[in-house]
TrEMBL record:
Keyword Acetylation appears in the UniProt entry: no
Plastocyanin-like domain ranges (all copies): 81-188, 215-303, 373-491
Secretion signal, residue range per the UniProt entry: 1-24
Listed name of the protein: Copper oxidase
GO molecular function annotations of the record: copper ion binding; oxidoreductase activity
Gene3D superfamilies named in the record: Cupredoxins - blue copper proteins
PANTHER family assigned: MULTI-COPPER OXIDASE (PTHR11709), MULTICOPPER OXIDASE LPR1 (PTHR11709:SF2)
GO annotation, cellular component aspect: outer membrane-bounded periplasmic space
UniProt keyword annotations, A-Z: Metal-binding, Oxidoreductase, Signal
Organism classification: Bacteria, Pseudomonadati, Pseudomonadota, Gammaproteobacteria, Pseudomonadales
Species in which this protein is naturally found: Pseudomonas arsenicoxydans
Length: 492
């Protein structure tokens, strides 16, 4: 029997995070699939894209950033004619407020947890010590608070974000709204004069009553995708393009599992930065760019001869979903209005943007293998997501590294679907990819903390950890992380 055919006829349990406590796999026999959802045309669209509010700095000392983030329920009249929708939000905003920092800053952010679940704040991608990174071992209880303190090293300018990372609760807290953008800026940014757009793409799944729907069977198996994709918490907004004909876009994929095959027909797109900062030189984008869950990019968008309204789309990307799922459809994320553009030409981009120096000789090797397995013990069908044939265990150390030792990690995807690999506490460099026995070197060096792997693909990365302590590595499809696809790295 073919595995995919078999999966199409069974159901994975629709477990929401609070009920995962005793589960190391997903029970496939008892949860519904495809609960009735709100019609996608009921969410208003077409408003002007709003700018993201910033988290205010309470400190008057230069180089010191001090603020408070509070996680709490937030009720909004989101759908006209329906009951209000309860989200969970940082500082009563969706997404959470923009945190804007500079290299060299000393940061102190107090987290207040007004949820009924334990939570943390994980500073996704930031090079900071493990004990300040909101790992699952450091939960803040309901009603509690914790102050995160860290320095931002020189060379850390990039596009980051923050979100919860409590064991067994991450997926639910994220899909209810807890995530926000974070920028680390350089005072010597070669693109600082360009108009900048910040686009945080998130996913929203509402039931027929406009309440946030719990995960169903397919969500736990494939990763959660709702019927709406939002930009800055708006449905298909309109972005008025700058009259000068060129903008710098920073784009976050803050979705639990949705892949964004980005396309803006007729425009010229140039990749200038990835998760951890600027590339060494601009790289042209051919038609589309794939942004996997948790990844971020910086793009230069040139209007060229466009003077009308063009949709920024998330085109179909076949990532290998399993089970009885509806066919994927292209989605419009927003409309770019080029009608105000007056420029007839733009200057050439700088030939050199930043420095992405090779990490140096490799002195250690590691292998991480993603896999999935059907478990039919005791008459119950269970789907297991594994790393190195094991489910996540908070009490187990899976790998050991040494501080400042350059390592080559071989990430292997032996599963039937794509998985985005994320390593905490550092940025890495992709060296090469291997698929079907064909090795393809990375076309350029870049700083990344998340990389996608296709089914049966191998990705090799160079990385180094700068602090001792415990780090996580996992699939950033949050439902897969929750159901076992995470490991622990001890740095000594």
């Amino acid at each position: 029997m073919q595995r995919r055919t078999f999966l199409g006829g069974v159901a994975v349990a629709g477990l929401a995070a609070p009920w995962l406590q005793a589960w190391s796999a997903v029970d496939m026999a008892s949860a519904p699939v495809g609960l009735p959802l709100l019609a996608s045309d009921l969410l208003p669209a077409g408003a002007t894209l709003r700018e993201l509010p910033k988290l205010a700095n309470a400190s008057s000392t230069p180089g010191h950033f001090q603020a408070t983030l509070t996680a709490a329920p937030l009720t909004l009249p989101f759908i006209p004619g329906h009951a209000s929708t309860e989200f969970w939000a940082y500082n009563d905003g969706l997404p959470g407020p923009l945190i804007e920092l500079f290299e060299g800053d000393m940061v102190e952010i107090t987290f207040i947890n007004n949820l009924k679940q334990p939570s943390t704040i994980h500073w996704h991608g930031l090079p900071i010590p493990p004990d300040q990174d909101g790992n699952p071992h450091d939960p803040v209880p309901p009603g509690g608070r914790h102050t995160y303190r860290f320095n931002l090293p020189q060379g850390s300018a990039g596009t980051y974000w923050y979100h919860p990372h409590p064991h067994q609760y991450t997926a639910e807290q994220a899909f209810r709204g807890l995530a926000g953008p974070l920028l680390v800026r350089s005072r010597e940014d070669p693109l600082a004069e360009l108009p900048e757009r910040l686009l945080v793409v998130s996913d929203l799944k509402l039931d027929r009553y406009a309440a946030i729907a719990p995960n169903d069977a397919n969500d736990w198996m494939n990763g959660r995708e709702g019927q709406f994709a939002l930009v800055n918490a708006q449905h298909q907004p309109v972005l008025p393009f700058d009259a000068g004909g060129r903008e710098r876009w920073r784009v976050w994929n803050a979705c639990s599992a949705r892949y964004l095959q980005l396309a803006l027909p007729g425009s010229t797109l140039t990749l200038v930065g990835t998760d951890g900062g600027l590339l060494e030189a601009p790289q042209p984008v051919q038609r589309e760019y794939l942004l996997a869950p948790a990844q971020r990019i910086e793009l230069i968008v040139d209007a060229g001869s466009l003077r009308d309204r063009i949709e920024l789309n998330a085109n179909i990307y076949p990532r290998g979903k399993m089970g009885d799922v509806s066919p994927d459809k292209a989605m419009s994320l927003l409309t770019v209005d080029f009608t105000a553009v007056r420029a007839t030409a733009v200057a050439a981009l700088p030939g050199r943007l930043g420095s992405v120096a090779d990490l140096g000789p490799v002195t250690a090797h590691k292998q991480v293998v993603f896999s999935e397995k059907m478990n039919m013990a005791n008459g119950s069908h269970r789907m297991q997501f594994l790393i190195n044939d094991q489910e996540y265990d908070m009490g187990r150390v899976d790998l050991v590294s040494k501080v400042n030792e350059v390592e080559l990690w071989e990430i292997v995807n032996r599963s039937d679907m794509d998985h985005p690999f994320h390593l905490h506490g550092t940025q890495f460099q992709v060296v090469e990819r291997e698929l079907g026995g064909v090795i393809t070197p990375a076309p350029f060096r870049a700083w990344q903390d998340t990389v996608n792997l296709r089914s049966n693909e191998i990705v090799r990365i160079k990385t180094v950890q700068r602090w001792s302590g415990l780090r996580m590595f996992h699939c950033h499809i949050l439902e897969h992380e929750a159901t076992g696809m995470m490991g622990q790295l001890k740095v000594v």
